[in-house]
Write a structure and sequence with these properties.
The structure is a single chain. By secondary structure, the protein is of the alpha+beta class. Helices cover 32% and strands 40% of the residues. It has a 3-stranded antiparallel beta sheet. The protein is elongated.
Length: 107
């Protein structure tokens, strides 16, 4: 959905799908920073499982700051900083969605 939509608009869109459960993942904060040969990612992600009325059944938030070595501005697909950032993103999503509360609410 477009970033310009409010949380309420996004929930309404999800509920209009007519599913018994909906998963809303929100990127509350995602920042990158580069200093010499060190880069860092700072992020806060939130997952909410909603029932068909929009009530929150379960919620999980992951907040972290992770360092990445290498030149953040060098374009190196599948290597270096790019690969590290991709791996961090994958790990964060797994941590967010594999939370027991989230898993149980989706069943």
């Amino acid at each position: 959905v477009p970033y310009t939509e409010t949380r309420e608009q996004v929930i309404k869109t999800l509920l209009n799908q007519g599913k018994p459960r909906s998963l809303l993942v929100t990127i509350e904060d995602w920042e990158s920073d580069q200093y010499l040969s060190e880069a860092s990612l700072k992020f806060t992600l939130k997952a909410d499982v909603l029932d068909s009325s929009g009530a929150v059944l379960a919620s999980n938030t992951v907040t972290s700051r992770r360092g990445i070595s290498g030149n953040f501005f060098a374009i190196q697909p599948h290597t270096g900083v790019s690969a590290q950032a991709s791996l961090i993103s994958q790990q964060v999503l797994q941590q967010l969605l594999n939370d027991q509360k989230i898993v149980q609410a989706l069943q």
